[in-house]
Write a structure and sequence with these properties.
By secondary structure, this protein is mostly helical. Helices cover 41% and strands 8% of the residues.
């Protein structure tokens, strides 16, 4: 009796649905709190100095104020960071570098705008080449002042940690794949369109 040969098949269902259900099942209760706790105390700001507030950033992580004691450590590569601090004035040309740096950072990622220039232009409020950071990337926290003291930077780090742990920003990202709370503050204008065109032409 000849055995009927059939092509082997494996029925595994929809992989995307299965993966989503697995993430929702795993990231619950204690695991979610662990993810948020670990992210809150692993805030690594990328080293991106846009203006004079960078001096206060240096002091905030210096030996006197020592922001590293909060579990925060400045780093040089955006690929290994999850926090960007916009340190004051952002010009139209610098805005493209800020956006490119933001895009290279892995999720979940956060942003802090520091100084009066980052809030609303500061003394350059009516300049033709100044943009606000919230026109380029979504901002989580604002630090007022000109320039803000290192203590204010420390307070912003602590406040961001509180937001991550209370709102579950990191664990929700693990499940959803994106921070849904940012959809209302995403930049509406593409200030870096010219830079993207140049990158495509040079590729």
């Amino acid at each position: 009796m000849e055995a009927q040969q059939q092509e082997g098949k494996a029925y595994i269902g929809n992989l995307e649905v299965a993966a989503q259900l697995a993430k929702e099942y795993l990231v619950k209760g204690t695991v979610a709190k662990l993810v948020d706790w670990a992210t809150a105390f692993s805030l690594w700001p990328v080293h991106l100095m846009t203006s004079c507030c960078g001096c206060e950033i240096g002091a905030a992580w210096g030996p006197r104020f020592d922001n590293e004691r909060y579990g925060s450590l400045p780093w040089v590569s955006p690929r290994q960071t999850n926090l960007i601090i916009v340190e004051g004035t952002v010009t139209k040309k610098m805005a493209c570098s800020v956006r490119i740096t933001w895009e290279q950072m892995p999720y979940p990622k956060f942003a802090i705008a520091m100084g009066a220039c980052a809030l609303d232009g500061g003394i350059f409020y009516n300049s033709y080449n100044i943009v606000r950071p919230w026109q380029v990337i979504p901002i989580d926290l604002y630090i007022p002042g000109c320039p803000p003291r290192p203590e204010a930077v420390s307070r912003a780090i602590v406040e961001l940690q509180r937001m991550i742990r209370n709102k579950g920003l990191a664990s929700k990202w693990v499940v959803s794949g994106i921070r849904k709370d940012l959809k209302y503050v995403l930049p509406k204008e593409d200030l870096c369109g010219w830079r993207g065109e140049r990158l495509e032409l040079s590729a």
